[in-house]
Amino acid sequence: MADSTYPIPGSVEAAPRRWSQADILAWLNSWVTTVDHKKLGILYMLYAIFFLLVGGAEAIAIRIQLIQPNMHFISPQVFNRLFTMHGTTMVFLVGMTYIFGFANYLIPLMIGARDMAFPRLNAFSFWMTFFGGLLLYYSFIGGGGLFGAGNAPDTMWWAYAPLTERAFSPGHAPDYWALSLIVTGFGTIGASVNVIATAFCMRCKGMTVMRLPLLVWINVVASGLALITITPLTAAQIMLLIDRYLGGHFFDTQAGGSAMIWAHFFWIFGHPEVYVLVLPAFAIASEVIPVFSRKAIFGYPVMVAASVGIAFVSLGVWAHHMFTIGMTSVGNAFFVLSTMLVGIPTSMKIFNWLATMWGGKIRFATPMLFCTAFVVQFLLAGLTGIMLSIAPWNWQLHNSYFVIAHFHYILVGAIVFCIFGGIYYWYPKVTGRMLSEKLGKWHFWLFFIGFHVTFDIMHIPGLLGMPRSIYTYEANRGWGTLNMIVSIGGLIQAIAVLIFAVNLIWSYFKGKEAGNDPWDAWTLEWSTPSPPPAYNFATDPVATSRRPLWDLKHPDDPDWKYE
Amino acid sequence: MSTVAVAHAEAEQPWVLPSKGRVAMFCLIIAESAIFTIFVVAYVYNIGRSLYGPTPSQVLDIPLFNTVCLLSSSLTIWLAERAIEHGKVKVFGLWWALTWVLGAIFLVGTGVEWYKLIYHDGLTISTNLFGTTFYSLVGLHASHVILGLTALLIVLLFTITGHVRQEHAERIQVLALYWHFVDAVWIIVFTVVYIIGR
């Protein structure tokens, strides 16, 4: 029949697709040249997940080395490089990129915009970050310079002067470190500018500033903080390079320079940086917890005010990393008190999350499990933070495993848990398919158990006096069993993360179809198809309250009546 | 089927959003301020800590003419902004060109100063701590002037070729914000280096 050969729409699609070389190049080209906020968001997330695995592998190597006294799994030189690279990778290549992954993908969708304010700046920022990461890892090959191959930086992620001066760190490893952080820093600044400009200038009709979803608000605060946080690091890195290449004397004590000023500059960056990393985790929790408690967020204005408060207070606490450097008692007292002050806005947030859950109809799907664990762990991490803020206690425990346990409780227990929660929550929107709940539950429980085995126990060797960054320890110290348990916990976490990776890939092909709004949520991103079309919204949405989608679904009981 | 109006009176008000260019430039200025703050702190902290000479009071002269040129360029760029806002492209071009010339004079002045310091006083970035902090702080500012002059020059070329019109006023004002920032920073650098530090 003649009409049976007539090309009907659909039959072309149904034909088995053959990937020619030209197709693959076109596909690659579409990702490399993209300025679409959704694709860039995905690139940021893939980048963060990739380096999470790399940094995680480094951590596992460190833990195997410490599993028993007098181990020689890796050499001391490699050990130093690994903990330096682990710290740098996790903070700059995972922490700083997951923020912009979520922010890029979600902010335009949540505020009813079609793209970020500056799409090309967005692409530029991502690729700067991307090449910064490559530059850092290239040091494994090129860092040796004339002094031998295979020489990644080994100066710890804070790279205290004068260890980084030419005389003590020959070769190019610290240069790769400094340059890569300057380059990723430019990427961060570009992305932060973009986030703020988007949130304020691209809002759809009716989306007033006090109706912005909390994720948007908190990301704006984090980006604003990043602007004044990353730049001091950039400045300090420029000084370091001037010292190393132009014979400058900033950190050269023999010419009157000061090594201490590096520590100050680094922590002026380093402490607010922690809040830059954790605020977007709060942002994720503040979206997930209400949806799975079936209640609007409790105390929206307080949440906003607390975020701004955290950002402000965090700028005045940096020297609590340096109590042992020898400050005046006035200096010590100031930083003790300002550090304790952080506890007020953060506990306001914890109470608000709890109040959101209180009396709610809680659904413990995987995203909610992660976010619930986050609330508990964040509280505990905050409590050890208050302990460490007390100067005499800090003198005792400075640079011990207690400190390591404390900040990993934040970085893993709060941030990584929220990243996982956020991925489980928004994966259906990004790919159109649900992540497997069964694998998700396995992932959650294994990770939760592994996390607590590792980081709860890790406080104890710290209290017993085990210093951080040591290559190995003697058998008669009594730390052996504890370290064994800590390392086993690390391996359990690694298994959980592998399950997560499998889940990501398996669900992409075989996951359950998600539909527009699998969680029955309230923000605008759930009003478009999953995955959203390139233009996001066919017609510009109008926000009538903080929960615009709720208003659309429940015209008889809209939110704006109560706001 | 009953329908309930979701939109209420508030949504019918005109919807105005801030200019994204201006918001972004303010963000950039905040970030840049933080960089300058660190360099200024490093300078102030290290005043008088050099273990050997030359010292600032021996070699530095107050660059008054330069400073006057740079600061008055803020005024001329403001006049240019006003002109383009009212669509007076020729007047705009004149003030803009004058701004560029004033900025260039400042840069040449810095070059002359550095030449004197390097070849007559023997002060380089590696000579002593003063040299390190001086060249890095003044150099950081000068590099921002170079960046600003490049941007101004691009606009100037567009003006000469007749591509700048009244509707570009907002973009030009965003760029001018950056120039005002560069000028404002100079006041701080000038105070720190030539008044407090000398």
Question: How would you describe this structure to a colleague?
Answer:
The complex is a heterodimer of chains A (563) and B (198). Chain A contains 17 helices and no strands. Chain A has 563 residues and is mostly helical. Chain A has a single domain, classed as Cytochrome c oxidase-like, subunit I domain (Cytochrome C Oxidase, Chain A, Up-down Bundle), CATH 1.20.210. In chain A, helix 4 packs parallel to helix 6, helix 4 crosses helix 8 and helix 14 runs antiparallel to helix 15. Chain B has 198 residues and is an all-alpha fold. Chain B has one domain: Up-down Bundle (Four Helix Bundle (Hemerythrin (Met), subunit A)). Helix content of chain B is 72%, strand content 0%. Chain B is elongated and about 65 Å long. The N terminus of chain B is likely disordered.
Highlighted features:
heterodimer, A: mainly alpha, Cytochrome C Oxidase, Chain A, disordered N terminus, B: 198 residues, mainly alpha, 6 helices, 72% helix, elongated
